Amino acid sequence: MKVYLVGGAVRDALLGRPIVERDYVVVGSTPAKMMALGYKQVGKDFPVFLHPVSQDEYALARTERKSGQGYGGFICDFEPTITLEQDLYRRDLTVNAIAQADNGNLIDPYNGQQDLNNKILRHVGPAFCEDPLRVLRVARFAARYHHLGFCIADETMMLMKNMVQQGELKTLTQERVWLEIEKSLGDGAIEVFTTVLSHLNALNDVQPLLVQWGDEAHQKLNAQLTQVPKSDPNYKVVLFCLWLQHSSLTTLAGIEQTFKIPSKYAIALRDYCEHAATLMTPPSPKDLLKLFNKIDLWRRPERFELLINIMRFTVGFEKSQGDRLKSIAQNTRSISAQAIIAKGFSGSEIKSQLDEERLSQITHTLTL
């Protein structure tokens, strides 16, 4: 039994980047042997195990054979006779097909180090086209390493284009597509990811709200995204809203179900697309109260905070505008239904009086 560090950890170490997680491949073992050593099996389609102490993932060396269409149509062979080279051959890119032995030696049968040095993302072999998810993965890697000068090999781009033309991306579930989008948002270069997909004519399969994408949209979005600090706790949500900022409210209806987008992202995007124009120019007291009511400032103040946070990266919106609006919101929230009831109002009078006092407060604050 031999254990090798593989994939992203080896690649990023060679690039001098932080290692986020470590994955290992085990050659010459079986599920029974792994569990006897205290590993916990977690893989359903093929044997993946968690180390009893580090909780890192250890997968048995395997080969794959296409058995159907789409991402999950594979039959795996994980006999102990499978070699490391066979396991590495099934991987997507040469830069991800480098292994490291426990003595530090690198095993690189498909010239991944050379491609790293030349900043090329190249597929390992013809089996690349059997998995449509790899189109999104390569686009994501191209975006992640774009600032280092990486590009996709011409022959790999041709394979990816053929996969798109053959409708392979249509076999992916929306959940899988969203996971790749969310990872790309975390990398902070979603505009590069989008441009790669645009060149592949894949946007209609991945994010049809962006089918009109072009160089001008890329450049404008890039200028906005570079201003968003990665330390922002809502970093990915902010980037997502800027990415789809030109969407109409009609097209955004029900995107949680249509594209399997988490509600936090979907709500923030709809709030931004609906209210950004109102906030760009000094809103009237009535318009501001209407906005506060619409986003339920009274029970969900964090929703307005997030909206203002996204507005900060909108061209023409000044930080001072955001600070002032947050101050108005805070002052207006201090007027509660309980305070109105304490004044003797009841029934339908409560809401009308509440709106009147809130409107008065907004008007007063706006004139200061």
UniProtKB/TrEMBL annotation:
Q: Give the UniProt record's GO annotations in the biological process aspect.
A: RNA repair; tRNA 3'-terminal CCA addition
Q: Where are the transmembrane segments?
A: none
Q: Where is the tRNA nucleotidyltransferase/poly(A) polymerase RNA and SrmB- binding domain?
A: 149-210
Q: Name one Pfam family in it.
A: PolyA_pol_RNAbd
Q: Which cofactor does it need?
A: Mg(2+)
Top-level taxon of the source organism: Bacteria
Q: Which UniProt keywords apply?
A: ATP-binding, Magnesium, Metal-binding, Nucleotide-binding, Nucleotidyltransferase, RNA repair, RNA-binding, Transferase, tRNA processing
An example of a GO molecular function for this protein is: RNA binding
Q: Where is each Poly A polymerase head domain found?
A: 3-122
Question: Which family, according to UniProt?
Answer: Belongs to the tRNA nucleotidyltransferase/poly(A) polymerase family.
Could you tell me what this protein is called?
A: tRNA nucleotidyltransferase
**Organism source for this protein?**
Pseudoalteromonas citrea
